[in-house]
Amino acid sequence: MPRWDRVKKSFFDWERLTDSFPRLLDAFVLDIKIFAWTTPCILIVAVLIAIARSTRTPALFPVRIFVIAYTDIMRGVPVILWIYLVGFGVPGIGLERPWNSPLIWGSVALGMTYSAYVAEVFRAGIESVHESQRAAARSLGLSSSQTMRHVILPQAIRRVVPPLMNDMVSLQKDVALVSLIGPIEILRQAGIDKAKFANFTPFVGAALIFLAITIPLTRLTDWLLTRERDRTGASKIR
Amino acid sequence: MNVKLTLNSVAKSFGDNRVLRDISLTISTGEVVSFIGASGSGKTTLLRCINLLETVDSGSILLDGADITAVGLDANPIRRRIGIVFQSFNLFPHLSIRRNVTLALTEVLGKSADDANETASSLLARFGLSDKIDSYPDRLSGGQQQRVAIARALALNPEVLLLDEITSALDPELVGEVLDVVRELKGSGITLLLATHEMGFAREISDRVCFLAEGVVAEAGLPEQIFSQPTDPRTQQFLQRVIAAGRLRG
Q1: What are the chain B neighbours of A137 within 8 Å (beta carbons)?
Q2: Which end of chain A has the lower number of beta carbons within 10 A, N or C?
Q3: What is the pLDDT of residues A148-183, one digit of tens each?
Q4: Is residue B12 part of a domain?
Q5: In Å, how far are A123, B110, B209 from B57, measured between CA atoms?
Q6: Does some domain include residue B119?
Q7: Which among B73, B45, B70, B48 has a CA at the least distance from the CA of B59?
Q8: Of A55, A41, A65, which is closest to residue A127 (Cα–Cα)?
Q9: Which residues in chain A are closer than 8 Å to B113, comparing Cβ atoms?
């Protein structure tokens, strides 16, 4: 490999890495912040969407149509496009500071798309709860909303924790897309350092930082999956 | 005897399948009525219609003289008065035994947690389940789960209790403990309607036995009469098959 020396120099330069690393870590705090505030919003909105889609009340038909359209549209367009459209578009209507920040609206765009994906996960969970559970709850005189709250949703959420964690690992990485409309988070910081050094090593540093978070999260997901399988008693076929 | 429940020409179809064609019955307060018949004869559907889990296509069901199948009626207050126990228990797996029993007490009747716990404790003690009160349904045997399900239905103090093949999903050695609970309920003033394949038990406990076939009550009468001198050929044929299968002494 005659080119290996060059690749090594431009991607795995130890000095550049140690130089850039503290700045990357600093910038990564912003990624964590975006992740931390979008996650609860996503979970709440997604549960509401999933409930709206699962409701059988005829009077709520328009709501169902609305949330179906929402999930279809959000999932049908690449995340990055929503970040551009919402992140640049909404501040463009002339909001006052600090509400005109692309950072805020970029994260909102991220939250909107992810809530549509996560809603589908919750919906699958809700539909996986057997009809007989609903019958048992209703036969005791619980209303349909009490049935959802006390019987269906708790069981549904337990079942979807592993796939949910999967989406959270994805989200953790996609936070970097917000950098494309301005905020200096880790990916953008790596880009700045790359330009400064004329060397790609900062990108490798950023990758290492992501891995330090996503690998433990993934392992946790696997562990939860195994535990869920053991708990429900489905034995492995060899 | 007061009339508790009246069925007037109840009919129910699922698609082209006319499960109930024309069921009319009058059931007195405190009466124990068993529904027997082949699988698919409509026993379960009938009980689910009475609990309003299914809506009748035509005909009506009266509880204490009031039509509970009227269009636009709120089913929830009616369901509190009519409990149902299912073949497959249908306990809430994510809730403790205690909470399975208290859920409707606190959420539907608005009782305090203390009141509800007291009711649950005494009901579960009555059915020999005191030591299971903090367990979860998965940890219990089928017979124990079914007894919890009965306690859960009874917690609301229903006037009518529907038992839908409550021993069909149990191992044979667990059937007895569940039937003992039902024996204990007889005479407590509660009106019991059973769909069952336990012919011996139906014969023993029932005030009246109804044989369902092709969506109608083919024959109804005292247990002795139905089991010893059935008049309808369909009843005769059914009982012969049951005896041949060893489920009833001839």
Answers
A1: 92
A2: C
A3: 999 999 999 988 988 898 899 999 899 989 888 878
A4: yes
A5: 31, 33, 25
A6: no
A7: B70
A8: A55
A9: none
Sequence-ordered list of residues with C-beta below 8 angstroms from that of B156, at least 6 positions apart, any chain: A140, A141, B80, B83, B104, B105, B108, B109
The residue of chain A with its CA nearest to that of B161 is: A139
The ipTM, to two decimals, is 0.90
Cα nearest neighbour of A231 on chain B: B138
Show the domain range for B46. 3-92+159-244
Residue B221's pLDDT is: 93
Cβ separation of A133 and B107 shorter than 8 Å? no
Q: Is residue B131 part of a domain?
A: no
User: Which of A9, A237, A228 shows the shortest CA–CA distance to A125?
Assistant: A228
Q: Write the CA distances from B111 to A154, B96, B105, B160, B161, integer angstroms.
A: 22, 18, 6, 21, 21
Domain count, chain B: 1
CATH architecture, domain defined by A4-232: Orthogonal Bundle (1.10)
Q: Is A150 on the interface with B (CB under 8 A)?
A: yes
pLDDT of B244? 85
Q: What is the mean pLDDT of chain B?
A: 92
Give the separation between CA B218 and CA B199, rounded to whole angstroms: 17
Give the minimum alpha-carbon distance from A145 to chain B in angstroms, rounded to a whole number.
11
Q: Work out the angle at residue B177's Cα, subtended by the Cα atoms of residues B201 and B235, and round it to the nearest 5 degrees.
A: 15
User: Do A128 and A156 contact (CB within 8 A), yes or no?
Assistant: yes
Chain A residues whose CB is inside 8 A of the B148 CB are none
Q: If you average pLDDT over every residue of chain A, what do you get?
A: 89
Report which secondary-structure segment, H or E, holds A50.
helix A14-54
What's the number of CA atoms in the CB half-sphere (13 Å) around residue B179?
22
| Spatial separation of the C-alpha atoms in residues A79 and A85, rounded to whole Å | 10
Interface test with A, best of B44, B78, B107 (most A CBs within 10 A): B107
Task: Answer whether A135 touches B (CB < 8 Å).
Answer: yes
Domain ranges of chain A: 4-232
- Contact between residue A80 and residue A177 where contact means Cβ atoms under 8 Å apart: yes
Residue range B71-87, pLDDT digits in tens = 888 999 999 999 999 99
Q: How far apart are CA A132 and CA A26, in angstroms?
A: 52
CB-CB neighbours of A41 under 10 Å: 16
CB < 8 Å to B91, chain A: 136
CB contact under 8 A, A146 and B107: yes
B76–A143 CB contact, under 8 Å:
yes
Contact B83 A150 (CB under 8 A): no
pLDDT of A60 reads 86
Residue A234: predicted pLDDT: 46
